[in-house]
Amino acid sequence: MSLEQLSDIKSFAGRQLRYKHHSAVLNCDMIFAVYLPPLASKQKVPVIYWLSGLTCTDENFVTKAGAQQYAAKYGVAIVAPDTSPRGEGVPDDADGAYDFGLGAGFYVNATQAPWSAHYHMYDYVVNELPALVNDSLPVDSNKVAIMGHSMGGHGALTIALNNPDKFSSVSAFSPICSPINCPWGQKALSNYLGNDQSTWARHDTCELVKSATQHLPVLVDQGGADGFLVDQLKTELLLQASTSANYPMNIRIQAGYDHSYYFISSFIEEHIKFHCEHF
């Protein structure tokens, strides 16, 4: 599988790169971003995957989070894929809504038509993209972590809990903690997976925590002034689930912060440092 380099920009003595490739899993062309720290010019470095939220592309995190300086400081690569398949023939929400279809892949493998022809973001993030990154870039495939925001926080947590042997740690900003119990999740999962809610459980962090036999290090930051907290994110359900299951998680409510990248940029160094402590 070949990579087409779209850009290469120097940042904090490292390289902010953007690549395009054809995805067999998603049946379309995809773009992803990667930051390589200065250390990557000398040796393979640990890698953190960042999953973005609703409406985002590979560019939001790269331009708004301010992560490059800390990735350079701690010597880690950060890979930021797009949030859904794109291109001609890829279906979108019939009403053009922001919370489903393009920009809203929800990191699941769709089983329902017409979504099942392209929307396999779970397999893309778990298997196809890492294989491509490992083959093409100077990263250490034995030192891998994952983090994300909102829908991407949901993706990071559920992917890590389903694949604990693939990741050293997982963290999330403002994650959708229980998509089974919120409007965003109910819309996405019913359309992508169908109405049988037994198929939804492996994509719900609170449900996965109940049956987890392996405990990864987990850090969650949630803004206390987040307008989506009560109706969509349901952080209290994750607190309850992790406590009941005796799954140790560091879940922090950060007073006064909202859902935006101002929040993410305020704590991104702590998340990068957290992952580096567990490689």
| Overall number of strands | 9
Into which percentage range does the β-strand content fall?
Answer: 15-25%
Largest sheet: 9 strands, mixed
How helix-rich are the residues, as a percent range? 25-40%
* Residue windows where pLDDT falls under 50 for at least 5 positions: none
Lateral arrangement of strands in the main beta sheet: 1-2-3-5-4-6-7-8-9
In terms of structural class, how would the helical and strand content be classed? Answer: alpha/beta
| Corresponding CATH superfamily | Alpha/Beta hydrolase fold, catalytic domain
Task: Briefly note the CATH topology name.
Answer: Rossmann fold
- Overall number of domains: 1
Describe this structure as you would to a colleague.
The protein is of the alpha/beta class and 279 residues long. The chain has one domain: Rossmann fold. Helix content is 32%, strand content 23%. It contains 9 helices and 9 strands. A 9-stranded mixed beta sheet has the order 1-2-3-5-4-6-7-8-9, with helices on both faces. Strand 1 and strand 2 form a beta hairpin. Helix 6 runs parallel beside helix 8. The chain is globular and about 50 Å long. The protein starts with a strand and ends with a helix. The mean pLDDT is 97.
Relevant terms:
279 residues, alpha/beta, Rossmann fold, 9-stranded mixed sheet, 9 helices, 32% helix
Topology:
Blueprint: E1 4-11, E2 14-23, E3 28-36, E4 45-51, H1 59-64, H2 68-74, E5 77-81, H3 121-136, E6 139-149, H4 151-162, E7 170-173, H5 183-193, H6 205-211, E8 218-223, H7 229-233, H8 235-244, E9 250-254, H9 261-276
Parallel strand pairs: 4-5, 4-6, 6-7, 7-8, 8-9
Antiparallel strand pairs: 1-2, 2-3, 3-5
Helix pairs in contact: 6-8
